Amino acid sequence: MTVTMTTAGSRIAGSGRIPVENPAFGEVFADAPACTPDEVDAVVGTAASAWPAWRALGEDTRRGLLRDCGAALSAHAGEIAGLLTREQGKPLHEATAEVRLACDWFRHTAALTLGPPERAADDTGADVVVERVPRGVVAAIAPSNFPVILSVVKIAPALLAGNTVVLKPSPVCPLSTLRMGEVIGPCLPGGVLSVISGGADVGAALTGHRDVRMVSFTGSVDSGRRIARTAAESFTHVVLELGGNDACIVLPDTDLAAVAGQIFRRSMVNAGQFCAAIKRVYVSRRQQGRLVEALVAAAEALTIGDGSVPGTDLGPVVSREQRDHVSALVAQARQAGARVVTGGTPLDRPGYFYAPTVLTDLPAGTRLEADEQFGPVIPVIAYDDVSEAVARANATPFGLGGSVWGDETTACEVAALLDCGTTWVNTHGELRHDVPFGGTRSSGVGVEYGRWGLLEYTRARVRHVERQ
Question: Which residue of 266, 269, 422, 445 is 20 to 30 Å from 235, comparing CA positions?
């Protein structure tokens, strides 16, 4: 199939091509357009030129146009979901749910408002108000795990706030996002939203451009650091949602029959390729064996295969590189003394499949505990005291999310000790359109979602009127 980039209300082919693989087979099935750094300069220039008229339209007009984008995307949901499954690997029902969520996100965002200016002072000498104003051109960069929805959660609030946007998807999974740009582009004035694709050089040219006033990025910690260093040169505002190594603490005497299935599902979302998935489980030593047995049974019951085949529960990881990363972490854990109870190897078949894996008895300091695997692997770590579990949960550089399972009162007390952006009790990874989401430390800067996320795409401006 042929998809194009979108800018200035028109489709553009670009100067280069990017091969796109179907990870279920490890074979190239299409290619995507790629632009050059020089072409990035022209696209950003178009977005900068479109900004004054876009911000002047007013919030109500922009709100209506966002709803139009959601309706246009909905009309093509099935097509885009099928494309998403082919390039990313997730089962078709999950891809469909992602696209449908993106449609809804336009509607949810359109219901938000920045509100009127806030009066800061009103006395005999002056009238002072604080208003929220758009920043300008926003560079939005989305990852490969949820490329459609993680694009929309950036572009929708950015546009509502009055910014123009240049969106760049991951070069691993660009097609569904580029197709979305083709679909929703006609809903907006020319230049307001551009969707381009390319490799790291294109991303660097975009995030370092002199006319970009904000960068919203979801991706790896290393890439986030590079963006932050570049942004520091011009003090460009950034929102960075980076890696997550979310811990799950199961309190002693928790009913494992009631929670094991939920813990397993929240570990295996998108084959573990979810920033807010459970990445490591801490359980009392007395209950460790029973929890491991329950997780192993769930892992061995999964149907693994091509996401386009009905009945598939778990697809491949997105790329050979990601599969090799997962393999390396599990191999290192095994060498350190961890016990692999099920899985622990790539599947002997075409594509980038990794067996659902449960392992335990990890020595402290094992990379699989300290780093993010981003794959279908669950390390189960025993503790003798809950304070030990909290200390190990907080001992990594990450701080995105964490959960505590068990008696609600006690769980809330333990959750308050976790050093992360979101704590859940008796659930995990529940992200809502009306609740802010973001991390601390190496998991990022700033928040997304809801009015809190909308405000990130604005800056405060003070209007001081001196009374005569």
Answer: 422
